[in-house]
Design the sequence.
């Protein structure tokens, strides 16, 4: 063991260790809240990832703090720059711009320095068990009715034993030695009082025999170095938090506050990380507004109502981890689509102008938005108001539409044109109610429903109205 300690001390000088692990803590009143979102660039983000990012972003923004993106790209075989770019683009689309970004692949020297310190303190040790040997041990433990916890046999190895194993070509992986005398306890900001018996856990492998880093230690070192004050992630990380709490303490650092969010399911069952239908591409294809997604994920699984907002400010102001429930939350795409429609109805013209056809100015947008489910539908209404539409077949109303054409008011057309026109038609034909109004709406817009015709008629104009009435009154039956 002394050989390994000396080797680490030689390779990683004390200044580097001091920089990462031994900074003087700031006074509590000067500490800036800092959260982080830490995806691995080994695939696309899914709804579960985005929810964690949303909660971390909201918490940081509410407290005037920092929201950091950490790319956990130590798995060189599976991590790609394409996935890293997709993560950045997806966060940008959702309005979750990080204040800074770090990549674990660029920080190996910091992790080695931390491991050297743990080795020197007797809290990390080399182990030579092969995967097959470990698998056999676990199977024997299960067969004996025991939990499959690592037996720490590597701690019994002598220097001669290790030298013999290395002469056979074996290289060690490194484990963090847990203290098992007492439970690890903390007050979770979502779960409340939480405790884990470390004796029920295996000493985690932190560095592989090939030199690659696993999740546990690098995450702790980064949280210390970056000043992360709150670690907010899924409840599947609760055992990891117990392990990492001991790592923080072993490295002489303050333990951040933990908040573990309930996991999500979809309407079809468990929400897999590979559920492509719940990814950002699918949301974009469905024309979901980023602010609608933000509102949905901010309130999903909480005691607060899911309601539409035109921007994020009210969500930030009202956000509180105490509202988060412990029950599994269900992601329902239909609910998100419904919320999206309600969100569109709130958006001002200035917020959507760059996505609207030129024909739809502020007045028309105010008129139309209450009838839209997505911004993209505005293009259809632009055609209805200023373009060409195919007339529906209305043979049963042909005579009535002929009367409507004969009573078509002269220009100019304004907000009163519709009421004057329909009043004249009521007198001439005896029709009233739906029989009076609906055929005109259908002939002029091709739609069963929509905004008030009194407001639609002026932008459609007399010329288009005349052509559409003539076409509808003559259209053959389907």
Sequence:
């Amino acid at each position: 063991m002394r050989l390994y300690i000396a080797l680490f001390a030689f390779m990683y000088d004390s200044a580097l260790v001091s920089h990462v692990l031994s900074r003087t803590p700031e006074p509590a009143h000067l500490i800036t809240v800092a959260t982080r979102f830490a995806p691995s660039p080994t695939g696309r983000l899914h709804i579960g990832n985005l929810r964690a990012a949303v909660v971390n972003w909201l918490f940081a923004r509410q407290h005037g703090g920092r929201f950091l993106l950490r790319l956990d790209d130590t798995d060189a075989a599976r991590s790609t720059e394409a996935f890293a770019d997709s993560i950045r683009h997806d966060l940008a689309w959702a309005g979750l711009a990080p204040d800074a970004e770090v990549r674990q692949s660029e920080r190996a020297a910091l992790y080695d320095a931390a491991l050297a310190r743990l080795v020197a303190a007797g809290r990390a040790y080399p182990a030579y068990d092969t995967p097959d040997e470990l698998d056999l041990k676990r199977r024997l433990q299960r067969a004996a009715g025991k939990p499959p916890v690592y037996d720490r046999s590597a701690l019994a190895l002598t220097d001669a034993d290790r030298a013999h194993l290395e002469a056979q070509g074996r290289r060690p992986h490194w484990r963090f030695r847990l203290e098992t005398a007492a439970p690890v306890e903390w007050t979770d900001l979502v779960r409340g009082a939480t405790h884990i018996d470390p004796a029920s856990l295996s000493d985690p492998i932190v560095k592989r025999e090939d030199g690659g880093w696993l999740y546990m230690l690098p995450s702790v070192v980064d949280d210390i170095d970056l000043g992360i004050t709150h670690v907010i992630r899924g409840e599947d990380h609760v055992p990891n938090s117990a392990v990492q709490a001991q790592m923080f303490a072993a490295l002489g650092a303050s333990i951040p506050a933990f908040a573990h969010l309930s996991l999500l399911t979809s309407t079809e069952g468990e929400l897999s990380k590979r559920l492509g239908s719940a990814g950002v591409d699918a949301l974009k294809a469905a024309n979901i507004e980023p602010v609608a997604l933000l509102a949905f994920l901010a309130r999903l699984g909480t005691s607060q109502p899911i309601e539409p907002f035109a921007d994020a400010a009210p969500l930030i102001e009202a956000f509180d981890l105490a509202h988060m429930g412990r029950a599994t939350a269900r992601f329902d795409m239909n609910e998100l689509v419904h919320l999206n429609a309600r969100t569109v109805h709130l958006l001002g013209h200035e917020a959507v102008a760059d996505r609207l056809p030129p024909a739809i100015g502020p007045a028309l947008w105010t008129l139309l938005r209450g009838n839209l489910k997505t911004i993209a539908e505005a293009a259809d209404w632009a055609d209805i108001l200023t373009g060409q539409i195919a007339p529906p077949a209305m043979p049963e109303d042909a005579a009535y539409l002929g009367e409507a054409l004969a009573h078509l008011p002269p220009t100019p057309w304004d907000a009163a044109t519709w009421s004057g026109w329909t009043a004249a038609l009521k007198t001439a034909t005896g029709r009233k109610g739906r029989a009076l109004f609906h055929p005109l709406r259908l002939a002029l817009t091709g739609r069963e429903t929509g905004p008030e015709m009194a407001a639609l008629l002026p932008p459609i104009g007399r010329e288009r109205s005349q052509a559409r009435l003539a076409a509808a009154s003559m259209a053959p039956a389907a």
